[in-house]
Design brief:
mainly alpha; 440 residues; 2 strands
Length: 440
């Protein structure tokens, strides 16, 4: 897995990702404690609303940012967005009202809506070999897992000597360090794409995504991940401090257990994905999430909560890690930024549903009922994924292009108007060819 770090460009980008994630992890812990300070036992409702605002920014702005990104130098765009995020994070320790939290979260995540999919779409160009890219995906997942594990532990250690607003300073340092590391490398320029209107560029990724069967299945799996993840992120502070009567440090330890489970799966997956396709571990991970949530009402102690969060973290990573492989093979190189942005927007649309639901249901019906409601949503996503992405789905499909002239380069490459090859949705394949068969 570590062999891909021999590539200096990827090594610097990976370091930038890790440092920024640690800073973001500190902000996650601090934001939960800030919500508790402002709203007390209604912290879950405040935090759920704040995170819903974050999702609105992601869903609305990621496709627009993708349409702009293919016209700008990637390095300039990434550095500028890191600096914007650092500037907003400076203001977070000084908020005293709930509405201030909401405004700053929107501004911070508006910048992230442009940064993250652009960063993700750059990695396949830096590592064009599929084996290298697969290892990079596992490393990236491991980076998220380490953030989930180490950031809460670091936060717990810091909270023994400083108050929680200081944690936001770590977020600022992380974004500044990320910008500095991106400045040290030369990034591949976006591949030239056909001239299209802003509207077409903005919607192209989502249209191509929804026209691809395995990506429709991925969207259903995103719902499973969002249902379980929202329960963990929104309500851990409420479960630990209001339900179990424990302190801030135990909130960080509970979140660390989730990160440990996710990291364990990330370490196992590279060899697993060498021997099997992406679908089996992703479906298994979603099943773990749906089933695990049913045990939530039985949690009555910190060790029990830690064990459940460990299991959910494992299922979370099983489902999430192979996502980049699906996206990469579902788009032409020039369409990758758009398809990554579509995944970013659509997956966060699922979080837009589950974040406020986790906070609102927790405050209205109690945590036990909230576990069961979100378990039902996760189960619904799993069933939809099984139907939308069947196990026998193939992408090397016989089809024909009766509308192309005989000398077209695509026909010349494949020998005839009726042929077969791995299909991706693009200008030549606007619909998935389920039934079309060659006639000659």
């Amino acid at each position: 897995m570590l062999s891909v770090l021999a590539n200096p460009t990827y090594r610097h980008l990976f370091a930038a990702q890790v440092i920024a994630l640690i800073g973001t992890g500190l902000a996650t812990v601090a934001l939960g404690l800030l919500a508790w300070q402002i709203a007390g036992k209604n912290a879950g409702l405040v935090l759920g609303t704040a995170l819903a605002i974050k999702m609105v920014a992601y869903v609305m702005l990621a496709p627009i940012a993708s349409a702009v990104a293919d016209r700008l130098p990637r390095r300039t765009m990434l550095v500028a967005l890191d600096l914007i995020r650092a500037t907003v994070a400076v203001a977070l320790p000084f908020v005293t009202e709930v509405w201030q939290v909401y405004v700053l979260i929107f501004l911070l995540q508006a910048a992230s809506a442009g940064f993250t999919p652009t960063f993700q779409a750059t990695i396949p160009d830096v590592l064009p070999e599929e084996a290298d890219y697969t290892r990079a995906l596992s490393l990236s997942r491991l980076a998220y897992d380490l953030e989930n594990l180490l950031s809460p532990l670091l936060a717990a250690a810091l909270l023994t000597v400083v108050s929680f607003p200081v944690l936001f300073g770590g977020t600022v340092v992380g974004f500044l360090a990320s910008a500095t590391l991106v400045l040290t490398v030369t990034l591949p320029s976006p591949r030239p794409a056909a001239q299209r209107s802003v509207w077409v560029r903005t919607t192209r990724g989502i249209r191509n995504y929804l026209a691809t069967p395995r990506l429709r299945g991925l969207l259903a799996l995103n719902l499973c991940v969002a249902a379980a993840g929202a329960m963990v992120i929104v309500n851990t502070v409420v479960i630990v401090q209001a339900g179990l009567g424990l302190a801030e440090t135990q909130v960080a330890l509970a979140l660390a257990a989730f990160g440990a489970g996710s990291m364990t799966a990330a370490l196992v997956l590279p060899r697993l994905l060498d021997r099997m396709p992406d679908r089996p571990p992703m479906i298994a991970g979603a099943a773990i999430l749906a089933a695990g949530m049913l045990f939530g009402p039985l949690v009555g102690s910190l060790p029990a909560l830690g064990a459940l969060w460990l299991i959910l973290g494992f299922g979370y990573s099983l489902t999430q890690t192979p996502t980049g492989r699906l996206l990469r093979r579902s788009a032409q190189p020039e369409d990758r930024p758009a398809i990554f942005a579509a995944q970013f927007a659509l997956s966060h649309a699922c979080w837009l549903l589950t974040y406020p639901l986790a906070g609102w249901a927790g405050a209205r019906f109690g945590l036990d009922a909230t576990f069961l409601i979100l378990a039902g949503i996760a189960a619904l996503g799993l069933v939809a994924a099984l139907r939308l992405w069947p196990a026998n789905l193939e992408d090397d499909i016989p089809h024909q292009h009766a509308d192309l002239p005989s000398g077209h380069p695509h026909l010349a490459a494949h020998g005839t108007t009726a042929h077969h090859h791995p299909v991706v949705i693009d200008d030549l394949h606007r619909v998935w060819p389920y039934q079309t068969r060659p006639t000659g």
